[in-house]
Amino acid sequence: MDELEIDVVAEVDLDDPVLIEGLPGVGHVGKLAVDHVLEELEAESALVRRVYSREFPPQVSIEEGVSELTCTEIYAVSVPEGRDLLLLTGDHQAQTNGGHYVLTDAFLDIAEEFGASELYALGGVPTGELIDEYAVVGAVNHESLLEPLEDAGVEFREDEPAGGIVGVSGLLLGLGERRGFDAACLMGETSGYLVDPKSARAVLEVLEALLEFELDYESLDERAGEMEDVIGKIQEMEQQQQQQQMDVPTDDDLRYIG
Amino acid sequence: MDELEIDVVAEVDLDDPVLIEGLPGVGHVGKLAVDHVLEELEAESALVRRVYSREFPPQVSIEEGVSELTCTEIYAVSVPEGRDLLLLTGDHQAQTNGGHYVLTDAFLDIAEEFGASELYALGGVPTGELIDEYAVVGAVNHESLLEPLEDAGVEFREDEPAGGIVGVSGLLLGLGERRGFDAACLMGETSGYLVDPKSARAVLEVLEALLEFELDYESLDERAGEMEDVIGKIQEMEQQQQQQQMDVPTDDDLRYIG
Amino acid sequence: MDELEIDVVAEVDLDDPVLIEGLPGVGHVGKLAVDHVLEELEAESALVRRVYSREFPPQVSIEEGVSELTCTEIYAVSVPEGRDLLLLTGDHQAQTNGGHYVLTDAFLDIAEEFGASELYALGGVPTGELIDEYAVVGAVNHESLLEPLEDAGVEFREDEPAGGIVGVSGLLLGLGERRGFDAACLMGETSGYLVDPKSARAVLEVLEALLEFELDYESLDERAGEMEDVIGKIQEMEQQQQQQQMDVPTDDDLRYIG
Amino acid sequence: MDELEIDVVAEVDLDDPVLIEGLPGVGHVGKLAVDHVLEELEAESALVRRVYSREFPPQVSIEEGVSELTCTEIYAVSVPEGRDLLLLTGDHQAQTNGGHYVLTDAFLDIAEEFGASELYALGGVPTGELIDEYAVVGAVNHESLLEPLEDAGVEFREDEPAGGIVGVSGLLLGLGERRGFDAACLMGETSGYLVDPKSARAVLEVLEALLEFELDYESLDERAGEMEDVIGKIQEMEQQQQQQQMDVPTDDDLRYIG
User: Fold this and answer.
1) Mutating which of C8, C54, C59 best tests the A interface, going by the most A Cβ atoms within 10 A?
2) Is position D188 within any domain?
3) Do C174 and D70 touch (CB under 8 A)?
4) Positions of the region Disordered (chains A, B, C, D) (predicted)?
5) Could you tell me if residue D136 is inside a domain?
6) Mind listing the pLDDT tens digit for each residue in C124-169?
7) Which residue range forms the structural domain that includes residue D139?
């Protein structure tokens, strides 16, 4: 395994596509969002690239007994009524600081191959508490990109995200800027405790406005409903066990829920 | 010391051998299993390769006052009545994420040198508690391999192993798939607290069925008996000291027991 | 992104300049000091270099909604009445041990390009408690440099800094010595708990004496005043809440204060 | 700074010298021992090499206000009545696993340059408690070396050192074996809590027998006396403060004592 191995799975002609990144992060908002688009636009999608790397965790995931080596997948989506898309999804980010740079450059290489010069990195911004309203906070890599996003309902706040944006999402903006990409990061507010389908929906509604496609949200809303049941039960248990320590559900617990 | 140094210790002609990996992991199941095969088939075995690497921990083990630099050993076994074997054993895994990829590729290189195209990675899957029945849970890198293993008694479970398979065992499946190997991981159930000879035996019984060799289990059963004595004593002490904190025996303690 | 990418932003002719380093460290003393010089001598300053690297944390900072990739900036300052300066500032240090060596060599390369052969690394030495008097402790990379600094009021103490000097400041002295630079590290005493503008002022007053420039300290003194208000409030709260645990303000809290 | 930079400080002709390593480790036994030999044989010693590396911690130590970049020093000692020596001393070991391999190979390169083919790695083996008798435990990289060491009073124990020998000392045996060196590790028993001059003396007395030089031990005995005063005071304080938590002195505290 070299530092990077990119499998060419298929070739698809796209017209000025937009790269949309949804790797795991806060509340898994970005991942949920991109996976939902893939689900809804399955008929127009094709897996085009798989990226393997020594920079990914050395492991395989198992699905129905069959292993799959850690990788990031890129799908080409020819959207009939809107912008063409390149969707970037996976279960893991790089495991070292330098690895994030290596992988982000690889993703930008692939984006250039397909003629993309715009990108959206999707993620979550943690509020630290359960919320009812889901704003979408933004960051861009050039100030000319601020206004169109504000028009689409994205909020730009002085103190958020605190500490900047870390990982692939941040580097897609930073390295993207050096390589001529117009890039924005859209972050749905989320508690940070749970996988959050409502936050993912808020982010997708902004994208719909910007990229002119339409999505059905039934399956995401179903998951949101399940999430609310879980939250309700947790709150009940908390009240019953005020003296006992209550662990916040871990990502592993939530994998079975969400 | 280069990234990899492979010592050619001997050359042996094998006929379509199967690589069997037994590096340390959960319950030391894989290591116990492979070391037992080596013990039982000593007359038919020859050490063929030693793999040294900067990726191994920088240390030597001491045996009767004499040092041995950390390495992985490969033995060629010409099994008269069954499949020829390449046995991979050692005391340590790589110490970095990238190191696991480097070492696994080296093991596959050696396997290809000897004409192998099939492999079994042996390990344990932790149950978190002491058990009486020892199922063997499986994962494969191609779905065509599911049925023969199911016929041999291997169980394929939806939620296990949780989080996939990490380390050399997982990468032997993942990188093996990219390099044309048919690979399976056999994981004996084990508490995860102890070196577990019974779990190793369960895994070996599956291998015997698949690879048509026969093993005597007397020495493994002896160790299992010693393990049960230890467990019995621990349970007694736990009952006596219910108010005191009871440390689970560490791997270091168990080195003297097992 | 290569190991190092140095953007040439502008070219400026300097006359035997002195490199002054102010990367984040104890009490952010060095950073505050260099940022203050940049503010005061803005009219004579020009950004000449930006250093990007895989060795920096993989993140972007956000300012008014627009991202900026982690980097170190070098400014050329043509000081009318004193020594020309090369100011080195940034928000992050390297994230690995080897990375510190790589980046420090890059900074020395740039210094050589501009004809510099002297440098000052600015930082803080923690006292562990709030103080009223601010001594400046020193270290040099050649003993011939001791006397001029002592004459300028720098103190050389046997046991300080305990454990030597770690990171870019230390390596500017160590690697600087091997590459022919006269280098000194000036460390203002500081509690270590807070961003400390008074400590930064103490260090700058020594530099003014050595490099013959003059600075106005109004804005630094304002920040020092704000810091004293904060300290006063914290001490009040401590007295009120003697039974409760009092967290020392973190760097993040202080970012909003200082 | 490259991965390795070796400064040639002087050239000295030695006759079949023995390399003796004393880098920091358990109880600083090896370092104390080698530094004592350097002190006692100062007239016959010359600094021949300094080894710098990105693998060392990125820091400088300060002595009388002047900085020194982290390095390992090699001294050539022409011992009139005994074997010639190459003494290896320093304040730090490598900071990564791979770094230990890189540095040990560099030390063996230098040893070969000077015609050495034998080496002793000096260290401590922790007993976990204060002791009165100081045995010297050994390990060798070839069994032919066992007898001469046993004759010199070295003990070879089955279970010690538990877990093998980690770091440069272990690799000098392991890599030394692959490169044709006869190597032994001599480890003085020590509590592991303190810098231990008595343990260093025990190790040196074995070396004296093996290498036919003679040392005066007055300064080491003085330090041992100081250490006993410190231990006495600590034991008094422990008795007085049975209810209070007593921190074991850290290496930093001991730097001022020892």
Assistant:
1) C59
2) yes
3) yes
4) 237-258
5) yes
6) 999 888 888 899 999 999 999 999 999 999 999 987 888 899 999 9
7) 4-217
